[in-house]
Predict the structure.
Amino acid sequence: MDVVELSRLQFAITALYHFLFVPLTIGLSVLLGIMETVYVMTGRAIWRDLVKFWGTLFGINFAMGVATGITMEFQFGTNWAYYSHYVGDVFGAPLALEGLIAFFLEATFVGLFFFGWERLSKVEHLIVTWLVAIGTNFSALWILIANGWMQFPVGARFNAETMRMEVSDFMAVLFNPVAQAKFVHTVSAGYVVGSVFVLAVSAFYLLRGSHAPIAKRSMTVAASFGLASALSVVVLGDESGYTAGQNQKMKIAAIEAMWHTEPAPASFTLFGLPNMKDRRTEYEIKVPWVLGLIVTRSVDQSVPGIDEMVARAKERIKSGLIAYDALDRLRRDRGNARLRATLDAHAADLGYALLLKRFRPDVTSATPDEIARAAQSTIPDVPVLFWSFRLMVAIGFWLIALFALSFWLSATRQLDRWRPYLWAALLSLPLPWLAAELGWVVAEYGRQPWAIEGVLPTFLAVSSRTATDVTLSLLGFVLFYSALLAVDVFLLVKYVRLGPAPGHAKEEAA
Amino acid sequence: MDYEILRLVWWLLTGVLLAAFAATDGYDLGMAALLPFVAKTDEERRAAINSVGATWEGSQVWLILGGGAIFAAWPPLYAGAFSGFYFAMLLVLWALILRPVGFKFRGKVDDPRWRNVWDWALFVSGFVPALVFGVAFGNLFLGVRFGFDADLRFHSEITLFSLLSPFALLVGLVSLSMLVLHGAAWLLYKTTGPVAARASRVMPYAAAVYAALFTAAGFWLVNLDGARVTSVVDPNGPSNPLLKTVATVPGAWLANAYAHPSLWLLPLGALVAAGLAVRLRARPLRAFLASALVPIFTIATAGSALFPFLLFSSSEPGMSLTVWDASSSKLTLGIMLGAAAIFLPLIVAYTGWVYRVMRGPVDSVY
């Protein structure tokens, strides 16, 4: 593997690993806030035991999330140096603001959450818990503003003098519709992960016949919060689909394995076997109208297929080459206003010309065949996207059903009556994680070949390190992370088995 | 505000963030590096760890914020320093990963072997970053071999071993002894009994080593090749490091101090603060506050000596990164400054509240 593939693999592994812990932190932080609110309002000690028990598991998970999050920040610099140079002016700002506004809040108060039980009043401690939850959620907002910009790079323009993208409209970056849709979709997914975790662990206790009072109360909270969250994940995932349909048409086409443009109203492919080589999808089962409704919110607009998007990419490459040529001349003739005007007119397509760098360094002398191949390279991996998306959605609907059932059982006080239900809740434990990771696969693998959609190809974004360097670091991460995961799971299992016990506060201290 | 002023303010602010990191999380690192030596029994170690338990997580964010600020305000520096110092960065990263898990996991299993393993993991998590940050600073003075192509793609010939020269290691030890002093001062202030007594005994040695090595590093600079910009500098110019010429001149890193003699107060302040930390041990809080000034003055000394250079290229001096040609755009610097002006005071306020809640000595149950 070359340095690009290795760097991508390392980023994918460390990011997916990080996201094992993030959604649980997001979900549990809010659930802890809810449980502690009930404690403060009712004054019943059992709710305090609930907060302390789930808080212990939250703490183990939180440590892993923080530890693996530093990797993500470092990695943009260590492995994606050209990316950092090229878009740091835009992308760096939300990352820095995340630290300044959100992570500082979360990290400062999480210490008091564990160490402050004896030193704070009830209400003060409740406020601390909610500040942790707010910090955690805002943290996700800033990260998704940064990520949203990678999908839909608004509010920035290319500066020839500094050879990079620079902010032109910060409000546009901040209120990027893709970022907003992603934020609500992602935090809702986090709430679902937290709720399923609470639900499954509680079901485990009920199956074992232990800790029933705490388990039932936990399930009640998780069922209602989880149901609302699971519904919002789907609704807001649909919003994500709509915004992606406005901007990342290639991604939509690939998710649908839709080779040819669908006339309005476009139908949704429920099942099929995408074939990359022959560019067609076998054994399709289609549902009429649904895709058009999701992507265009209309019945009279068509949805472009992969072939049409490749044809559009070809045109943009040609336009990009004009920009690239002007930029090249500007380097020798910095004051030339005519060249600058040409560059500005075609700057939006400059990234497409950079796709040709995969085939030759002097892209302006690219052959028509190379241009065609570069246009082809804008197609992401169709079968992976097709299946990841469908599996994610299927899990989403299953979890809605599970939460709806839980909600009804808890409302009618029958949570411990049906063992098959408890088993279903327990066995569903890994599903929300799987869905969340698949969601990232769709979002980021579906963004390929771009690091920044339409602006910077991934293969240009890497650092100038050797493949050996990255192989070594990748190996280091795999070994180190595997060991940590083993310890983390061991501890979680140990504390779940141990169950809620009075006096958890002292154990929090070392 | 002009671009020039914004760049200057961000240079100062970046220094403030790094100094805040060293003054707060610095004692956590120093404590961890001392842990196996000043705390012998499980009881003592728990007390030492609990002393930072409630606050270290917030302190670490100064580093994360410093990194984010460099990304947002100095993108070329972020790209160059992180990818150039690749394995050094990964060493720091992996050591820092051990910290949250070490603090959180250690007490979760009641078994001496388990706890001993995590104690040594915590030692590594303090010792390695404290040393490597210093080594990195040393290399800022020595310069590293890097350049840019016409697309401003950074390329370098830096390996982990090329970073480990005698001068860089010396600066690494300056950093280590400084943070050990600071960690010991914290333990003296925050713990009682044998841990505090041992920490107190460590302090004079740490301070002496620090003072000797810091002074030696200063004398080393007299003949060390530094950098000087030889072309006309436009402080409002574009952030493109290819538009200037730079000469390599022996002793150039002392030029700022010769031109502005008041800058000598910075290294002097560092030495005096280290001495005061030792002298004031009978009043632990004051000793701790004095030791917090040591990293602040030390970073200020290094930054003011290097100014306006951020990353000096020994192979292509003209492509070195400076305050004037390695920043982000004026708009980004302005927006980020606005955000910092609002949120930094807030952070200081609520962090102060947390310290107030957690004030007073701790023990093994805390």
Notes: The longest helix of chain B spans residues 3-38. Chain B is about 70% helix and 5% strand. Residues 38 and 198 of chain B are 6 Å apart (CA to CA).
